[in-house]
Every structure is written in structure tokens, then in C-alpha cells.
Amino acid sequence: MSGAVGQAQSSGVWQQTWDFFTDGTHWSGPNGIPTKLGEHVSVSAYALLLALALAIPVGLYCGHARRLGFLAINVAGLGRAVPSLAILGLAEQAFGIGFTPTFLALFALALPPLVTNTYVGVTEVDRELVEAARGSGLSGRQLLWRVELPLAAPLILSGVRTAAVQVVATATLGSVVAFGGLGFYIISGLPSGNYGEVVAGAVLVALLALLTEGLFALLQRVVTPAHLRRSRRTRVTRAAPGEVFATGPAPAL
After folding, report:
1. Strand, coil or helix: 245
2. In CATH, what number is assigned to the domain containing residue 124?
3. Is 148 contained in some domain?
4. CB 190 within 8 A of CB 198
């Protein structure tokens, strides 16, 4: 009996979700999907861009100079250690509701993978190659831009990809402080018991996160030279019939 009731409720939620997407009023106006999608993408993009502008230079400097890396990574890691909801609440107390607290929480969340991957990407460049480039007369700046940065680019983009997906997924919290975005449908659907709207909001966020993941994965593949892609693949050595041992570089952070 309870199973039948649960199945009926589940069917009702999915029907409500379908009705939500097929209702024309949800595709126009200030609370329409295009408007909320624009809000969601805009705050995510602004947070990611500012984090890039700060984290990439810091990571490049620390990796190239081999100094302050531990400090930079741990300071940036505070954005991961402190819950985004807590940052959101503190920012709301300081700046009020709306865009600013949402932006600050996402900005803090984006910093750790960007700083860490940039620093590690530069420090993992082959030291013999670096010394050879330095011996050929390249200055420190030329060495960074011509040798270290191009070779570190795949790992840096891996950090950008991670940060972008995390930011897009977490931007739903903006609705808690009356910002909007796709989280609006989740926050507005819960009090009224309209779980179809809640599911619709979750589906939209998931699709946007998957699209972001795919676009940055494609960009990472395009930027990574073919010979580096081959060298990063796992090498498989067959030791005996039925026994396969995989060796290769450590996975990217």
C-alpha cells in the first residue's frame, strides 16, 4: 500500500516537472527561465573571472619563484574549508542581500583549485628543460611565458574547469539571499510544496553544470598539445597472462 502511494507521489512530481517546462509563462517575464539563467550565468562568470585574475598570477609567481607556495595554497584553501553558506551569511550581514554576498561566496569557492593547479602545473615542468631554457639565455619572464606556462596550461585549465563547475553548481545558494538565479525555483518551490518546480530547478542547474564541464573539457583538450595528451595516458604493461599493471603520471589535481 505504502509502495503504491509512494509511486503515485513520484509520478505526480514528474508530471508537475513536465508541466513546469511546458508552461509558457515559465519561459518569459522576470521569473522566467531565460531571465534566471542569465542571472545564474552572470554571477558565476563574474566570480570565476575575478578569481582567475587573482589566482593565476599568484600561482604563476609562486610556482616560478619556488616561494610562498605553501602559504598561497593554504590561504586560498580557506575558501574550501569554510562552507559557502557560512560565507554567504557573513557577506549578507556586511553587504545586505542580493548580488554581492552571492558573488563573494562563489569567488572564495573558485580560488583553491585555481591557485593549487597553477602552482603545481608550473612546479611540475621538467627541471632539465627549464635549466636548458635558462642556459640558452632566456630571462625569468621569458622562461615563464615561453616554457613553463605553455607546459602548465593543461593542468591550469583542469583547475579552471573544476572551479567553473563548482561555482555553477553552488550559485543556487544565491536565492537564499534573494539574488535569484536558477536556485530561485528550488527556494520558491519548497515552501509551497511544489516539488515539480524544485526538480525543474535542480535539472536546470545540473544541465548547466554538465554543459560547463563539457565546454571546459573541450577547451582543455584543444589547448593540450597532442604529444602531451599521449604522454598523460596511462601506460599498461602486461606482466603475465591475466595480470595487468597500470603505471603512469599521477592524476591532475
Report:
1. strand
2. 1.10.3720.10
3. yes
4. yes
The sign of the dihedral angle between the CA atoms of 150, 151, 156, 161 is positive
Helix (H) or strand (E) holding 124: none
DSSP states of 185-237? HHHHHHHHT-HHHHHHHHHHHHHHHHHHHHHHHHHHHHHS-HHHHHHHSPEEE
Amino acid in the structure at residue 227: H
Residue with cell 508537475: 16
Kindly report the CA angle at 114 between 108 and 117, in degrees rounded to 5? 145
Of 217, 145, 203, 164, residue with least CA distance to 41: 164
Lowest model confidence (mean pLDDT) among 44-48, 130-134, 236-240: 236-240
* Four-point Cα dihedral 102, 86, 170, 23, nearest 10: -70
User: pTM for this structure?
Assistant: 0.81
Q: CA-CA distance, 98 to 115, in Å (whole number)?
A: 27
Does residue 100 lie within any of the structural domains? Answer: yes
pLDDT digits (tens, 9 = 90+) for 95-108: 888 899 999 999 99
* Number of domain units in the chain: 1
